[in-house]
Amino acid sequence: MAMIEVRDLRKVYKDIVALDGVTFEVEKGEIFGLLGPNGAGKSTTIRILTTLTLPTSGSARVAGYDVVKHPMEVRRKIGLVAEKVILYDRLTAWENLMFFARLHDVPDKEARSRIEEGLKMVDMWEWRNVRVQKFSTGMKQRVNIVRSIIHRPEVLFLDEPTLGLDPQTTRRIREFVKELNERGTTIVLTTHLMNEAELLCDRVGIIDKGCIVALDTTAKLKRMIKSSGVEIVALEIPNGSWQALEELKRMPHISKVVMVDQDEVHVHMDGIEDAVTYLVNAVQKLGLKIRTIKSLEPTLEDVFIELTGHSIRNGVK
Amino acid sequence: MNIAFNDLKYFFRNRVAVFAMILMPLFMMLMTGYIFPKLQSTGDIKMAFVCYDEAFERFIKDKVKDVIILESIDDAKEWLLRKEIKAVVVIPEGFLKGLLRGENVVLKVIPNPNDPQSSMAVSHSIAGFAFPLSKSRGKVSMKLINPDGSDFKYYDFMAPGIIAMVAIMSVVNGLAAAITRERERGTLDGLLVTPTPASAVIVGKMSAQIFRSLIQSSLILLLAIFLFHISLQGSIFMVYIMLIIGVFSFMGFGIIITSSLSDQESAQMLMGAFTFPMMFLSGVFFPISQMPAFMQKIAKVFPLTYLADALRKIMVLGVSMKSVINDMLILVAFALVMTGIAIPVFAKATKT
Ligand SMILES: Nc1ncnc2c1ncn2[C@@H]1O[C@H](COP(=O)(O)OP(=O)(O)O)[C@@H](O)[C@H]1O
Ligand SMILES: [Mg+2]
Fold it and tell me: How far is B184 from chain A (nearest CA, A)?
């Protein structure tokens, strides 16, 4: 039986459709990622699965329990690292963890040993008696994760757990998530970072505008692009050649032209044998100068662009 | 300039805020307009006598048909509680004789703590009534007292009301702020993903606020006793019981407002639009009995009215539980209904 079953979930806020029929399953022991741009509906999905929000329609089961009909049972099985750090900043790390352990009915003695183990694991043991308000964002997030697993949940939900953290803390948190998973915790995390999804997740659901547009292992998602005959070529050109790019878009075999930087574009082509040669010819016809050109292995980003028609960062075509 | 304009625009886009802004001054005007003129009118004020002067008793019974003569001060307390009379006039022994001889005599008046202003009017009417009796220049002077004989001060009327008001207001605002803060910081979600029911979250928050408010009320009480020497006739224990019930009666209201309005500014404004009239209509500053009839009716919907009334009876008249049981039951009913509505409203609001 799947650990999480989501069926045709819809959530409408007044006139905003946040989720428009989301369906997926997460197996026990998996790290599942929801990848999508801002406003895609990642947090909304997490909030429904953690019983914090009611769906407008559709159903969701977590650890065998329906989130609407049996929220209490679901809550006993899950842990949550939300977008905002769930800690009281005038309490110390220790007081916070003790408070949440008690809310989960963890016996005090057991709680003490779990807190010690957890804080040592994230290197925050020396800071246990310091108020949370004195911590940096990264330190808070480390304690926050210890809090989320204080009751040893079967499923841990993490909503953009590395957002706004420095690279070092980001790396540590990813390692920690992997370690938890190896010990048997099923993990659902959201991110808008391609590499995070690639690094961490067994399977990734790509979500955009409230819909899951693709769902598979990262390797398969990338292979999917290749087998559909799409070639991606990176092109470095001088600044300010917008006009020419517009024309490039209209040429045969070229499906998408995506600006990835000031002077770099990714060109998606299909139905063509030698993509690089074709592109060089095409660009020369337009009188554009090329600094560099190279064929790319598709990344998740390209998968996203191919599927949604826009970039994950800002939705620019 | 730009900033000012932007601020105003920001403010006016909030409909609740604008509503409150217009409502409040209007209200102030109405209140002062209606109540102050009333203060000067003597009107028809009911009073009773406790007579230690038989001559006067005979005299007054003869003069006034349905005069109320009471047996003792304890009797007087009962009558004051029932609010049928505005004041009890204590006639000392030898009062009439003294008056006839042209001596200066002192009348003691126990005002109804709910309406000390009226007792002033009582004094005047007694003076006018007694004047023809004094053949020479004998003077009748008045002294306002508490049932135990100590001096009654206007502050004795105010203090219980103010304590009631501060307790209720601070708890409602404190609770609303605590919930809003937790919601904005995200810790409320943290509580709600644990197997803690929303009702337990609410009850926990309420208890914390009640505790805080009791500390605060104690400070005010101490201040009032030691700095302003207010009288505290009744038991302090009763005062606390009433405060707890009173505060509980209104807390649910705060939760309902904060839960149903997600925007903090609107919530505060709406709360203000309700609590502000409550302050003036609940008899904390102005006696309810002096208000026009429709305002008296409005006063009945505010729990503060009952809490202030009960505290006044306990603190000034020193009555027992029995005499405030009505106020108490009404407050308990308020508490149950409000909390009963608040818990599901809160639970629902947290799920959107
Ligand atoms: N409480 C809410 N009220 C109204 N709209 C909301 C609310 N929460 C989210 N939304 C809207 O739903 C959509 C999805 O939001 P969200 O799930 O937070 O996206 P993500 O986490 O992927 O960035 C957005 O358009 C957002 O504006
Ligand atoms: Mg989000």
Answer: 9
Q: What's the gap in Å between the CA of A50 and the closest CA on chain B?
A: 7
Answer whether A79 contacts ligand 1 (Cβ < 6 A). no
pLDDT tens digit sequence for B308-329: 888 888 887 777 777 788 889 9
Sign of the Cα torsion A33, A39, A43, A46 reads: negative
Neighbours of ion ligand 2 (CB under 5 A): A 43
Residues B190 and B298 in one domain: yes
> B167 and B119 share a domain?
no
Residue B262 lies in a domain: yes
* Average confidence (pLDDT) over A199-221: 90
Residue B193 lies in domain:
2-34+154-351
- Whether the CB of A205 sits within 6 Å of ligand 1: no
Domain boundary among the residues B104, B120, B144 is at B144
Q: Count the domains in chain B.
A: 2
- State the average pLDDT for chain A: 88
Q: Is the pLDDT of residue A159 over 60?
A: yes
Q: Which atom of ligand 1 is nearest to the CA of A36?
A: 22
What's A127's DSSP letter?
G
Establish if B149 belongs to a structural domain.
Answer: no
Q: Give yes or no for residue A13 CB within 6 A of ligand 1.
A: yes
pLDDT score recorded for residue B212? 83
